[in-house]
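Might you be able to review the protein record set out just below?
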Amino acid sequence: MKKERNRLHLWHRNSLKKRLILYFMAIIIIMSALNIFPYYTISVLMSRMSSTFELNVQLNHLNDTLEQLNYAYENYLETKHSKSLDDYYRYSYDLWEEVNAIQIDNSGIDNALVMKDIRNMVSSYLDEMDEAVKARRSRMVDDYLYHHNESTKIHQYIVEYIQKLNNTLFFQNTDRYTSIRKSIRLVETLNIGVLLSIFILSIVLILWFTYRITKPIFELSRAADEITHGNFDVPSVKVDTDDEIGIMAEAFNRMTESIRQYINEINEKVGLERKLQEKEMENLIMKTNLREAELHALQSQINPHFLFNTLNAGAQLAMMEGADRACSFIENAAELFRYNMRNLDKPVTIGDEIRNVENYMHLLNERFADKIEFVLEKDDRVLERKIPCMILQPIVENAFIHGIGDVEYTGVIGVSVREQEGDAVISIRDNGKGMSAKRITQILGGDTNERNETGGHEGHTNGIGLNNIINRLKIFYSREKVLDIYSEPGKGTEVVLHIPQEPAWF
């Protein structure tokens, strides 16, 4: 903030930088104007000439089409050949299109009126030719002769008017060309005059600036040379200007008086910076240890204790007695418990978590066969990615308990695993009761102490809540965006996990 105020102060003062900037900006603006003005003037005039020349070309092409039409018309009246009739109709259409395409808006009202007359005559000419052709085909000699004579007269008038308009436009071009030459000469004269003025002014300013700058700089350099030889008793450098050189002289004088004090302050700062770096290194080590301790503390909350050996014995007993369904049920329960008894400090793969969810859903389907439907979609390309243990099954359990546990219709729990923009995206969705936006905000904000919207407490039967899962994922991957929740009351809930390719600490 102080530096910004100093810059503003320097700018408002009669600074050398300000004078140089204003001088060069004035030169640039003048030179740019000198280059833009003649270019713009010539462009405008040439554009007008081009539009007039384009009208000449259009009129010439119109005259050619008129003659081709007249030739086809006369040829048909003499020979009654079908090809001549086809040419007649084709050129009639072309003539009418071309005469309507010619628009005169910048060549004077007289030219516009002449073009309007040509357009009207072309219309009458086409009508008379059509009548003559009809009379010729119907062998009505009197009508044929009358309309043929009328069309011939109109044809002559059209040719005359086109020639008249062409000549008028040509003379207008000549006048504009003369005007352009005069304008170009005037612009050239102005350019030469301004360039000479700028050249003379630049020489004067260079000489003046050189003297104003070099004189105080010479005084400063002489005093600095004395200081380099150890003489700090040199007299103060006096500069009468209030620009950057004056400021530099004042700073030089202050520097001479307090140089020893600055050296001592620099030494103290070096010592403080060294201590600060050592402190920052200690803080970094403490943060690393804290992160590792926090990860183990969170994982220690989810260390289940189940009777795996007892269930395994029960499964063998059920198999021996031929109870296959009970055996399958107990085996899936045992596999689920054995997964929970593993070392939770070690990461697992997404595929391991999916198999654990399948075991859990098998138990639920046995208990609630007509109430729950499980849908699984997985992309094999991301199943080997690392993930903390016991992440997916608690979310599925939460969907069952708080989502579809009390609904009267068939509940659906869907799990999909796919790859998206380098991340593995895992979606757990249900068609249950859903939740409000307020409750979603509470969960994502770490508020797990309040009761949920159905009156029960948040959490799972295994003791792992969403807050625990979110915190473990954030620590494991060192990123904030790890989980999203999408839900509305009565429309189900979807929990989406974003799994990077590699964990941050693994």
Confidence is low (pLDDT under 50) at residues 296-310, 450-463. The beta strands are 348-349, 372-378, 386-387, 411-420, 423-430, 483-487, 493-499.
